[in-house]
Design goal:
The chain is an alpha/beta fold and about 300 residues long. The protein is built from twelve helices and ten strands.
């Protein structure tokens, strides 16, 4: 059951949280942490993206205010906790929790995080929002395996209740406990999983999405009817093809390629997925995927 984005639970202790990367996930995570009472700084390597993300969060909070989900004071306080940084070191100085939300590329994640260790205190949690990459490898390459942890939020973070807390081989018990408490303080429900390819949810989610794509390739039914079958027959809040559009076809392709390499051919991406990514049809963020997206809403193709 999804949490109400307007009822994010404030916690007793206000932390300094830094979010690196301001795509859909980074922006959503920052909204959640700011609403929960944490001072939140955003940084993105693309000039102007962090500031644009702060403005977009403001617009989202305004919508919640209009719907009566939050008060004007709550919106004002959340926005006062948010800021955009132009330098990653400034963003991370004094941070209690760093959450990396850059694209799914191990080398990129290492390149982003490693130079920032110099300005992070020895007790800062190093969180990664990866949905499939190895926490163990990331921690080892950073040189701080004991405090590197997976904090896998779900899209959209202000709405989705689950956070996967992923334990690397050398992640300490203290780090796991702090990560679980942090997720609970955001009003989320955490589950703790071992560091295996695809963790728990990505592994199941992408295999369901891939099978839906195979069915679409075979002409079993339309994308809309495949999704409707899972929504009405199995009580899924969103069908697998619509969800793929929301997550991003390129993201799903990267996960499937990674799992094929790590686990086996049962995760080999369907040809339709690779073709659509090559055509630039990445889902909601480009306006077209398995659906057309008009004013943020899916329309059957």
């Amino acid at each position: 059951m999804s949490a109400d984005p307007g009822k994010t639970r404030p916690i007793a202790v206000s932390l300094h949280v830094t979010v690196l990367g301001t795509g859909a996930m980074g922006q959503g995570i920052a909204q959640v942490t700011a609403q929960s009472g944490h001072t939140t700084r955003l940084f993105d390597a693309a000039e102007g993206r962090a500031l644009a993300a702060v403005k977009a969060i403001g617009a989202q909070l305004e919508k919640l205010l209009t719907k009566g989900k939050i008060t004007g004071d709550q919106r004002h306080q959340a926005m006062n906790r948010l800021s955009a940084a132009t330098d990653p070191r400034d963003a991370c100085a004094g941070a209690d929790v760093v959450i990396e939300a850059v694209p799914e590329d191990m080398q990129l994640k290492v390149d982003v995080l490693k130079p920032l260790l110099e300005v992070l205190g020895p007790h800062a949690l190093i969180g990664t929002n990866t949905s499939s990459l190895s926490i163990t490898e990331l921690g080892a390459r950073l040189g701080v395996p004991e405090r590197t942890v997976g904090l896998h939020f779900f899209n959209p973070p202000p709405v989705m209740e689950l956070v996967e807390v992923v334990r690397g081989l050398s992640t300490s018990d203290t780090t796991i406990a702090r990560a679980v408490d942090f997720a609970k303080g955001l009003g989320k429900t955490p589950i703790v999983v071992r560091d295996v390819p695809g963790f728990a949810t990505s592994r199941l989610g992408v295999i369901l999405g891939a099978e839906a794509m195979h069915m679409l390739e075979m002409g079993v039914a339309s994308a809309e009817d495949i999704d409707r079958g899972m929504e009405l027959g199995y009580r899924h809040p969103m069908g697998p093809l619509k969800l793929t559009d929301l997550v991003g076809l390129d993201v799903r392709l990267a996960i499937l390629d990674h799992l094929t390499k790590e686990i086996g051919d049962q995760f080999r991406p369907p040809a339709i997925l690779r073709s659509m990514v090559r055509a630039g049809k990445l889902g909601k963020k480009t306006g077209e995927g398995f659906y057309k997206w008009v004013d943020g809403q899916p329309v059957a193709r």
